[in-house]
Design a protein that fits this description.
The protein is mostly beta strands. Strand 23 (256-261) and strand 24 form a beta hairpin.
Amino acid sequence: MTRLGVVSLLSLSLLLSACGGGGEDVVNPGDGDTGGGVTDDTPNAALDPAMGTGTGDTFQEGQLEIATTDLSAGGSTQILATIVDADNGNAQIVSEEYLVTFSSVCESSGLATFSRDEVSTTGGTATVTYTATGCSGTDTITFNLYDPDDTSTVLSIATGTLEVAPAEIGAISYVSADSSAISISTISNPVLPQLASLVFRVVDRSNNPVANKSVSFSLTNTKGGLSLALDESVTNEDGEVTAVVKSGSAHTVTSVIATTLATDGVTPITTSSQPVSVTTGIADQDSFEIVASVLNPGAYNVSGVAVNVTAFVGDQFQNPVADGTIVNFTAESGLIDSFCTTAGGSCSVIWTSSGYRPGQEDDPDYDALDRVNDQNVVAGTSAFGITTILGYTEGEAGFTDSNNNGQYDVGEVFESFPEAIRDDDILNDDAIDLDTNSNGPVEFFADYNSNDQRDAAPSVYQGTLCSDAAKDAGHCAQLMDVRDTAVISQSAANSIAYELYTRSGDNFTVFDGDLDLNDNNIADDSGSFYLFITDENGAIAESGTTVASGGDGYDVSSDTGEVGNSIGELPASYTGLYSSFGSLYQVSFAPDGTPKSVSLTIESGSGEYTLTITLVPSV
């Protein structure tokens, strides 16, 4: 069955490194006229794609790069092709989509398999793992290149051959790995190991294990100092032998090639492991985000209302961090799970309404606590119910890898950050992030270095991916807490307040509801006004609150529907409204028959409270 594969970022790292890494000639139609790229808004229109190995002067059209061409029965190997622009010095094409299909003589007979039948790639490379499953002798591998929008025409073909040893002379096969990913060597990571153990098995012609058989190992890629603990070992009584891969300092992918000699003591028999990824596995600031599922729950006067809060966590390369990464949470009010552990780059906690609500400082139970709240500027009070949630985890600040070596180098652009805080009055845009009183801070901050004070952003890079020269300059001396903030509004449930306004630019004037706008005592006016709704505290109405409109003798159109999933903060330029928070609905009306009335119906989110407003002309 044909399936459409997608080249992952990790696979692309392997392919790029296999072809020379950052030294490749690259065509990137999406990057404008930079770096030898080609700009063209029409996919594939200005390119002459060719497929083979290498790039530039080393490009060999029509050839495949096969990791090992001599396989044991049942052995596997990786096969790679590069896609270049023949009209642009054989520069590698990136950011253009092509479809590549894979086939072989043995595969068509059911005696070999590919890890996928086809791949849609935008990275200028295509790779597949070939496994012999009964094939012996010479097998010819073919890659066909297509435009994904026109698979009737082959744009380019690349081929290669490999030899599969007959099963009767013994075989070596890949068994397993204890980890498919290891951390970069400069990171002491509790989640990802720095070593990966890969097991191979040697068997005789009857598929019995062969003990005390010597097996040698090599790597398909040694970028960043990737290495093997031992270059050679011997099999145990089960015919198994283990190769240990030691991480390097660069983000890349490698495979282990294991080789033993056939029973004649001369013929090498080789197989390749599945790829092992070398990655940071550690969070990066610009890849970290927390999101609340409901921003305006009806929770100000109801305890036990739950909101799902999710953290999305990626590393410097926008890969999901390693499973098991811990994200901590703290909230200005209510209850929140203290942490979650990621799986696939995300995890979630539950925030639940309870206890103190922001805006209750006049309550004697809370008036001495020096709480810091966001301000309802129009009302001149604390904003009721606005709650700040902070999520954070250990990670690095982020930099622009200008030379694509996977490390921060002196002179490259980087970010630096002060210690993370839960800024409870974040909406006020105040110049001071951390509010204090005579005793010190009154907002939570994550004291990363445990010195009892909030430290400012340093002048050096906070991370792990540094060159030796950068480390000598003081960079990568420590990590930091990556962080993000979510703000929710605890709206009063079953509570609706409203006012009608006319509008001129950003200025709103209270409207008395008289549909005889020109005061001529004739009910034939057309016009518009605004309905502004909040809860009883001047906060946005609770999630699920709806507005409907209708008319008797009027044709009415309005911005009806459910209030948005929002905290309802209005532009600071708006004047005349009674609150800084809420929802505005424009209502337009025109006579249609005998004008009598315009009606507006507001229903609370729980459906337990309905308010109907009826407007009529004064005549």
